């Protein structure tokens, strides 16, 4: 059993469970949405920076929509059905109503840079409430598109004999390329076509009135096809207004252009107002004249014995009209076709453009996606093309008559909010259109429109009797205009704004946190879900925030509030059950299907009744059966939607529970991470202490080790040493060099691990560097009886950026190991350079590395069991080479087959350098036998150790001076060189002795 709904939490109340966080994922719009020349700021505020056209250019673009020939068709239809006198007063009444409602709508749209949908949101309908009006608006655009394109197709049939099915297609598809770039191309089309259209429009009336001035007298006396409209009849006037007032929606199409009007300033004040009047409600003045002109041409057609169904066709009207201008029938036909095509293109680019905006607004709120205005423009055109195949032109009166009731209610509610509610303070100043600040449904506009529509449609269908039926649209106008202020007063205007604007004060551009684009401040709102400023389009399309910024203003929360207030407690639990959702959904589907099939039935019954009236009952039975079948299918689909919604809701609740658990787990992980960070800090501190210890002890070890190596070298070169002791000296020297390599390697590893080793990148003469390396190892390999080959793929750059010392260290370790551990065969060094990536490949024919050793070959002191036991090494070379490669951002790989050899591959990024480094003298290749790093004497900081090192150095220096004496005696040519060395050695000896004396004083102190 369902439980009663709970109240929506207030914004300040703590949530019962943690709010699911919304991760910031950058939204990338496709090219059709991102390019504003295509998108024309659909779904959003029109920024001031985009309103670059002059006032008259925008007004001319909007006024060009008045070219549509449906106006003449409406005037002719009214004349045939109601007579001239009633048609005249109906046109006057329609024009006054449209002008009065269109003026405030046009002014607000031009002043605030919003289209009809955005204006409706802020004028009493709310964010979701305006979705209904967007659908109404979209229906008007494709209905009018179909009517206009049908007229153009008939003109193509008259001029070229093109079949209507192809004429419909041409008339619809030719509009698409003209509308893709929005107002940019439309304004050019209207500007270029306006002079031709005005000339062709005025020309037939001028000639007609000159040649037949008495035609007006016959028009004024015309009483309609049935002869009942010869006198003023309020019922007939009301019926005529009901048919024609549907054109009030044309104001919305004007508004879609007026949003590009530049801002009003003191300098352009009069121009601005004139442009708004001309491009806004001013179209109805031209429309009234065109409707009267259509009535005149239709009367001439009827006088020429043209059938009534043909006389209301604008093509037939202007064929008769241009017949007064030209005598040649072919010229008349050509000029008529040109005029009709120009007129219909001027209006249908507007219909397609307005339809694309309306469908964009509708589907953006229903689906939370927006493929682009261009997509919906094509969609709107295809719907109109389908309607043309249904021959909707024949049902013009019925379609527009029913539609006008809802359209008038919509515009009357909007106008009432603008001219009554806002001045009285019941509605906020300005136009708020952003989802983040609006209630989903505002009862002011939605309630007024629904109430007025219900009463007017009921009156139109005869529910209140035939005496009230002609005044259906007036009922709609009056009820909506009165209900909107009353509801605003009753509710205190609290359903306009869901929350205050939290954006920082000031204008300028701001960056959206979602799409990361910059927009003007009017188009931005603060989003608590994303913790930043978000643009209106990203806000409208977001489906993850669940209206976190306004939980009390959602449609669900509002519905629950209404249910708690007005429904009995026993009924409320059923509202949240599956049956309640199913009945609510079917309450919309049943009347919607009835309306669609009813309109189709009326259209077919009217067409069939003219020739086969006896078949109408069978047609009615067929439609009833079709309705029952569709209702069954719709019921199944509705139940499936209810179950799917319930399943999604259960999944969402489970997701929220899992999110709560995950949040707790994340919190625990955060605490664990804090503990790990503290442990890591302690480990880093210990590692730094280890590095300092290794550095210090290596310095202390090198002091006696340098003396051992130095004296071992001196003794090895001393001829007085017996031969049987020289082997011992060689062992001492090799052991000392091994120990020195071990110290240096350990120190390098400690520096790298401690992050103290810094790369010193600079320009490197790459070819010479490689050449030196190759010559170095050629000599070493030749001494071992190995073949050494160097292979190069491609041309090397003259210079690259690299740390020469560390790059040399890596290659010497790898190539040196290959030479060291290879007993026979060859060592190959291959270099490939491409796209600033150098790949060094070292391949040998040595013993290889066992598979179990490959995993630990780069570990310190690790040596494979298959290695050469006689080869010396510390086991740190590969470790250091691997660490340096990683430090340089490279990659080292190894492949080995025991018994066949090993291949090392080193990939390093060595970018080219524009200017080669200064040339340096070529160094001669040296014989290298597993060279250890050059020892560097680093003195301890304590005075005693410093003195000890100096004392050892003095003895070593004396040996060097004795060697210099022997060289001078044996080589007289080197006397000058030896003399200089002796002077420098004496100076060094003096400094060393002085340090020793100072150390003695310090020790005694």
Automatic annotation (TrEMBL):
Pfam families: HATPase_c, HisKA. It is an enzyme of class 2 (transferase). GO terms for molecular function: phosphorelay sensor kinase activity. The keyword Calcium does not apply. InterPro entries: HATPase_C_sf, HATPase_dom, His_kinase_dom, HisK_dim/P_dom, HisK_dim/P_sf, Sensor_HK_Regulatory, Sig_transdc_His_kin-like_C. It catalyses: ATP + protein L-histidine = ADP + protein N-phospho-L-histidine. The keyword Mitochondrion does not apply. Signal peptide: none annotated. SMART domains: HATPase_c, HisKA. Its EC number is 2.7.13.3. Keywords: Kinase, Membrane, Phosphoprotein, Transferase, Transmembrane, Transmembrane helix, Two-component regulatory system. The chain crosses the membrane at residues 58-82, 88-110, 122-145, 165-183, 195-212, 232-251, 272-302, 322-342, 374-396, 402-420, 441-465, 471-490, 582-602, 622-643. Residues 696-912 form the Histidine kinase domain. This is histidine kinase.
